[in-house]
Write a structure and sequence with these properties.
The chain has helices at about 45-55, 90-95, 100-110, 125-140, 155-175, 185-190, 210-215, 215-235, and strands at about 5-15, 25-30, 35-40, 60-65, 75, 145-150, 175-180, 195-200, 200-205. By secondary structure, the protein is α/β, with parallel strands linked by helices. The strands form two sheets. Strands 5-6-7-3-8-9 form a six-stranded mixed sheet, with helices on both faces. Helix 3 packs across helix 4. The protein starts with a strand and ends in a 35-residue tail after the last helix. It binds adenosine-5'-triphosphate. Adenosine-5'-triphosphate (ATP) binds near residues 19, 44, 45 and 49. Adenosine-5'-triphosphate binds near residues 45, 47 and 49.
């Protein structure tokens, strides 16, 4: 594994007991220091399973995962899986499972745009505030890799845009790599260095520009894909020069998982 690589999956497959076919098959992927990588795919395509397998929370049925020794990971699970009704203040929530000082708690809340909320009950937070508190907790152990599973679920459009801006700021400040699962194709693509399009297997992978032009992506996302393609044809106005990416020279490289039966021509329209 190269020194810039934080985590790498080789032929990763996950099958749930009793299911007739694997949820994800033969996924090869890696995340390098400081990269923002997004996983997109239809409902049920295995995105959360992929993330949880990378984190070691789900057993692989085939393949293996390499992690850099001592890799610090911050994880924000999908919101729907978190019990919000528990009677608990934000301050106490931030001290679970590892106790933090008041100063640390206040600093991280300030960082994620929810200063002074420590005494609030979790249940009394808005969706956007809760999401920022979850992010704050994930940042407390100074992760080198931050993993966010559908972090903007339930937020309105300005809330979504603001959240991704915050994520980019966190990356710029801390140098953490970020792996996100998202449905916000347009917004998330602008914030990503690399996109992985999943439908049980990796259908296509590459820069947002490459993926938005890939036939497999367009077949999966239809009209919505047209929007991202238009974005990259006419408004590719962001740059990633502030991040040293080892694979910059391979900006158009992308790989296909085995078993893909879609059109593999890589024409860019
Ligand atoms: N523990 C489990 N046991 C059995 N099947 C499971 C389990 N976890 C997930 N699945 C199934 O695996 C498939 C993929 O689920 P997963 O949550 O990874 O998809 P997803 O792409 O994240 O979906 P969504 O976009 O709806 O969140 C689904 O059909 C789901 O029902």
């Amino acid at each position: 594994m190269s020194s810039a690589t934080l985590i790498r999956a080789h032929g990763m497959s996950v099958a749930h007991p009793g299911a007739d076919r694997p949820v994800i098959s033969h996924v090869d992927m890696r995340i390098k220091r400081g990269e923002i990588v997004t996983v997109v795919g239809p409902n049920g395509s295995g995105k959360s399973t992929l993330v949880r397998a990378l984190l070691g929370q789900v057993m692989l049925s085939a393949g293996r995962i390499e992690r850099r020794a001592g890799l610090r990971i911050g994880y924000v699970p999908q919101r729907v899986h978190i019990e919000r009704a528990m009677p608990m203040t934000v301050r106490r929530f931030l001290s679970l499972p590892v106790r933090v000082s008041d100063a640390q708690a206040e600093a991280v809340m300030e960082r994620t745009g929810v200063p002074g909320l420590g005494s609030r009950q979790i249940v009394a937070l808005s969706g956007g505030q809760f999401q920022r508190v979850l992010l704050a907790r994930a940042l407390l152990n100074e992760p080198e890799l931050l993993v966010l599973d559908e972090p903007t679920q339930g937020l309105d459009q300005p809330g979504i845009v603001a959240f991704y801006k915050l994520i980019e700021d966190v990356r710029a400040e801390t140098g953490a790599a970020i792996l996100m699962v998202s449905h916000d194709l347009l917004v998330v693509m602008r914030a990503s260095d690399r996109v992985l399009c999943l439908n049980g297997h990796v259908c296509c992978e590459g820069t947002p520009e490459d993926v938005s032009a890939a036939p497999a992506y367009r077949a999966l996302f239809g009209a919505e894909a047209q929007g991202t393609l238009a974005l990259y044809r006419h408004h590719h106005d962001h740059d990633h020069d502030h991040v040293a990416l080892a694979d910059k020279g391979h900006a158009h490289a992308h790989v296909h998982g085995p078993g893909c039966d879609h059109d593999h021509s890589h024409a860019r329209g």
